[in-house]
Amino acid sequence: MKKLTFPSKFLLGGAAAANQYEGAFDADGKGLSIADFKFYDPNLDRKKINIDAIEFFEDSFAEVLQNPGDKIFAYRWGIDFYNRYEEDIKHFKAVGMNCFRTSIAWSRIMPEEGVINQKAIAHYKKIFQACKDNGIELVLTLSHYDYPLWLTQKYNGFLSPVAIDKFLEYAKVVLTEFKSYCTYWLGFNEINMTSHSAYTGAGGVLPRGDKKNQQMRYQALHHQFVAQAKVVKLAHEIDPNLKMGSMMAAVQSYPATCNPQDVLENQKFLHVNNDFYFEMVCRGEYPQYMLKWFKEKDINLKINPADLEVLKANPVDYLSFSYYMSSIMGKELAENSSGNIFFGGKNPYLKASEWGWQIDPIGLRVVMNNLYDRYQKPLMIVENGIGVDEKWDDKNDQLNDEYRIDYLKEHLKNLLLAIEDGVECLGYTTWTAIDLISASTKEMSKRYGLIYVDLDDYGQGTGARKIKESGKWFKTIADSNGEKLWD
Ligand code: BGP
């Protein structure tokens, strides 16, 4: 087989998110964020992520604010990247990364409404300069599941349209301050999360059990779409060379059988959970199937006509997404498989991770082809990887994560095959560069990194960093420009 390689200027690296790895939750004037109140529950069933793991309702939110008790707020310490960034960035270079996708903590930059924290700006500049010095290009996400607490308490996050202006105020500061460090930007992380969790996706707190909760989630989402469109415009005004994208959790699903009923069911599932989001950020119009679905679900959105113009006028510059797994959907699904946030059925042709995420490298090629066929916009895969409960092998002083090498190898090969199919792809950052706290389960022991961090679910350990076998392998792939994938 022909040994396909990465195109020139291809961004290859790793990803992370401020709330999951920075720690230092109250250092140098940082304000609290909604992530600081999520906690790890040792009794959690890893394979059954229920809504309470990603959503806070009014009662549970009030409870955690008033009675934090001895809850394990793992995001508050993360892996202390805030203080150890120099060492970590050297490790990023050592594993061959030429690109690092991370996020900025809004609550660091704006600890209170209208207040700009200069210390935070100076700190991020040091980090970004260190990346530059190590030949690592940045991709920066403006908001990755960590809205400032004040935004939630004063406005109920994006449930209020006021959040649009607040987001733009923040975006203006960071785009202006950091434009010389970063060309590729992203608005919201996995914007489709909001339809599952107003808290995680939009910084909103809903009344438990309210019939109108789903309507409120989609209303918040509408405000986010408007904010996303406006931030595209803003970025271009600040510097026409900046590229602004939006980030989705790509949902890939196959019909459970070739029964046309199952094909139809799967199409509906993809429309609502996947296609809709890409349509909104690329074409800026609510698709017919979604309007029909809103009617069926008795969801009435307040949409002001000026919003529709803004949406239409400001499509993203590139499309980015996370891709971890696929599922199946059909009329009668015998068994449900657990998943990140999207629940589908088990596919007998695929194996799954310990958390039930079904591994499907070919699905990545399918997703890439579908998206490029539809929108002809460059793609960037900003998250892809496998979470495993693993331990450093002291005896041999290594972590032989050959399962991760297999996972990454097969996905990267399919990415190259998609490029060979004609898809334009700017880059790929694996989730993650370095072990950090999980988004769904808040565990440290669900590890994704190329670099190991010696900390447990309770924040205990030396915090030492060591390169896993996958990290060494990643370097050989980077150095050979992908050729070694095919050996
Ligand atoms: C995505 C999020 C990330 C991340 C990843 C893995 O949904 O954007 O923040 O953590 O999934 O998920 P988890 O950490 O729950 O295993």
SSE inventory with pairings:
Layout: E1 11-15, H1 18-21, H2 58-66, H3 81-94, E2 99-103, H4 106-109, H5 118-133, E3 137-143, H6 149-155, H7 162-178, E4 184-188, H8 198-202, H9 213-238, E5 243-249, E6 252-255, H10 260-282, H11 288-296, H12 305-313, E7 318-322, E8 326-329, H13 361-375, E9 379-383, H14 402-421, E10 425-431, E11 451-453, E12 465-467, H15 469-479
Parallel strand pairs: 1-2, 1-10, 2-3, 3-4, 4-5, 5-7, 6-8, 7-9, 9-10
Antiparallel strand pairs: 11-12
Bound molecules: 6-O-phosphono-beta-D-galactopyranose
Q: Which class of secondary structure composition applies to the elements?
A: alpha/beta
User: What shape does the CA trace take?
Assistant: globular
Mean pLDDT over all positions: 95
Name the CATH superfamily assignment.
Glycosidases
Taking all Cα atoms into account, the compactness measure Rg is 21 Å
Q: DSSP helix count?
A: 15
Q: Assign the CATH architecture.
A: Alpha-Beta Barrel
Strand content range? 5-15%
The CATH class designation is: Alpha Beta
The third-level CATH topology is: TIM Barrel
Q: So what's the oligomer here?
A: single chain
Integer tally of domains: 1
Straight-line N-to-C gap: 10 Å
The biggest sheet amounts to:
8 strands, parallel, barrel
